[in-house]
């Protein structure tokens, strides 16, 4: 990642993270998931359970609108 990436969503639900990731990517927005989880230990307490969705700084505003439902396939 050569450009600056920023958080657009923090969740504790891996399914939610994947759904939002797929939604953003379907609109052409690159997404990276970052998690502090250790796979063998299914712990979702505090920052250990956080999953962060990051997008390039240039796509942050659009990504936030897509997440809120203000932009996207349904609004075309």
Using the CA coordinates, give the radius of gyration. 13 Å
Average predicted confidence as pLDDT:
85
- Give the proportion of residues in helices: 25-40%
* Helix and strand run: EHEEH
Unreliable stretches covering 5 or more consecutive residues: none
What structural category do the secondary elements indicate?
alpha+beta
* Structural shape: globular
> Got a strand count?
3
CATH architectural grouping: 2-Layer Sandwich
Query: Domains counted in the coordinates: how many?
Result: 1
- Give the DSSP E fraction (strand runs of 2 or more residues): 15-25%
Brief account:
The protein is an alpha+beta fold.
Set down the secondary structure blueprint.
Elements: E1 5-11, H1 14-26, E2 32-35, E3 51-56, H2 60-68
Antiparallel strand pairs: 1-3, 2-3
List keywords for this structure.
76 residues, alpha+beta, 3 strands, 22% strand
Can you offer a commentary on this structure?
- This protein has 76 residues and is α+β, with helices and mostly antiparallel strands.
- It has one domain (5-65): Alpha-Beta Plaits.
- The protein contains two helices and three strands.
- Strands 1-3-2 form a three-stranded antiparallel β-sheet, covered by helices on one side.
- The longest helix is centred in the N-terminal third of the chain and has 13 residues, at 14-26.
- The radius of gyration is 13 Å and the shape is globular.
- The mean pLDDT is 85.
């Amino acid at each position: 990642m050569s450009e600056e990436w920023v958080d657009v969503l923090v969740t504790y639900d891996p399914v939610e993270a994947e759904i939002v990731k797929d939604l953003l990517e379907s609109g052409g927005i690159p997404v990276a998931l970052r998690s502090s989880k250790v796979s063998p230990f299914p712990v979702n307490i505090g920052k250990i359970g956080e999953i962060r969705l990051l997008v390039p700084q240039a796509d942050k505003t659009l990504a936030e609108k897509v997440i809120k439902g203000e932009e996207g396939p349904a609004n075309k």
